[in-house]
């Protein structure tokens, strides 16, 4: 028998016939005429090269071949029914999902932290794993189902992934709250005389968007410290006279730091949420993305 040429409707008919052992009752359950079911039984006998069902005193009797088919056929049809059934409605209260998110430490503070309470309140049995963001690996990680959601800047976002803009970020000047040189909004000359700390995710960098903006004005600043993470930078700012130009959302709730508008235009950036097309219509993943967007 060639499974590729077999009509799956015939297998459903055989399953019902093996349950009812009666063509008339099988026809009623299948909503078909008795001659139609008899014709399908004839085709089944040809396909399986076996009589399958024999006349008996109280209906029909399965052959040994039909008896051997009964349980595997029932399980196969049940599995097929489950495979093609519409996805269940996602119930966050009962979910035990492990949400997997890739983000920088800044994005974790600006995005994961606001969403965490909403997600935990609605899905208390779920868990969350936050991974360090490695932009060159994002597409591969999503393709391998290692991540659910990635937070990424608008620049160089992989075009093959679904994306949603979450917000536009702007830069602010930050120093400790009693910094002696920040008690008044700084002029551009004053700004260039300050000593800066900056984040260099790849390590060792001393130039960023602020330096590009200054270069267009024929100016430059003095960056004396480069660090790989924002968390350490915030400690440096709170305990020294160094200052920094930071994304505003990172320092919204830092009363020990002074936040000012820089004396020059520094282009900001967009923050995107990325996910793989495979997860686009998954109910649980749709819910997660909705929670993240609603928390901002």
TrEMBL record:
Transmembrane annotation, as ranges: none
Q: Which InterPro entries match?
A: LysR-type_TF, LysR_HTH_N, LysR_subst-bd, WH-like_DNA-bd_sf, WH_DNA-bd_sf
Enumerate the spans annotated as HTH lysR-type domain.
6-63
Pfam families linked: HTH_1, LysR_substrate
Keywords of the record, alphabetical order, are: DNA-binding, Transcription, Transcription regulation
* UniProt keyword DNA-binding, yes or no: yes
* GO molecular-function term, one example from the UniProt record: DNA binding
Q: Which residues form a coiled coil?
A: none
The UniProt entry, under SUPFAM superfamilies, shows: Periplasmic binding protein-like II (SSF53850), Winged helix' DNA-binding domain (SSF46785)
Q: Which family does it belong to?
A: Belongs to the LysR transcriptional regulatory family.
Name of this chain's protein: LysR family transcriptional regulator
Q: What organism is the protein native to?
A: Pantoea rwandensis
């Amino acid at each position: 028998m060639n499974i590729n040429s077999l009509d799956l409707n015939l297998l459903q008919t055989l399953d019902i016939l093996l349950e009812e052992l009666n063509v008339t009752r099988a026809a009623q359950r299948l909503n078909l005429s008795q001659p139609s079911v008899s014709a399908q039984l004839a085709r089944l006998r040809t396909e399986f090269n076996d009589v399958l069902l024999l006349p008996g005193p109280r209906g029909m009797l399965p052959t040994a071949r039909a008896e051997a088919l009964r349980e595997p056929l029932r399980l196969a049809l049940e599995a097929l029914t489950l495979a093609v059934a519409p996805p269940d409605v996602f119930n966050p209260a009962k979910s035990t999902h492990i949400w997997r998110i890739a983000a920088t430490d800044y994005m974790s503070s600006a995005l994961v932290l606001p969403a965490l309470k909403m997600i935990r309140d609605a899905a208390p049995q779920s868990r969350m794993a936050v991974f360090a963001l490695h932009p060159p690996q994002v597409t591969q990680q999503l393709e391998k189902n290692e991540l659910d959601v990635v937070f990424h800047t608008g620049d160089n976002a992989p075009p093959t992934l679904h994306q949603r803009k979450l917000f536009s970020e702007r830069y602010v000047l930050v120093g400790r709250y009693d910094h002696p040189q920040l008690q008044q909004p700084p002029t551009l000359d004053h700004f260039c005389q300050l000593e800066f700390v900056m984040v260099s995710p790849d390590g060792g960098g001393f130039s960023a968007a602020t330096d590009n903006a200054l270069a267009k004005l024929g100016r430059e600043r003095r960056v004396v410290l480069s660090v790989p993470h924002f968390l350490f930078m915030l400690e440096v700012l709170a305990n020294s006279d160094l200052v920094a130009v930071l994304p505003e959302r990172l320092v919204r709730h830092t009363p020990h730091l002074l936040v000012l508008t820089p004396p020059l235009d520094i282009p900001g950036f967009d923050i995107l949420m990325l996910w793989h097309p495979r997860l686009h219509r998954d109910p649980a993943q749709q819910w997660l993305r909705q929670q993240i967007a609603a928390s901002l």
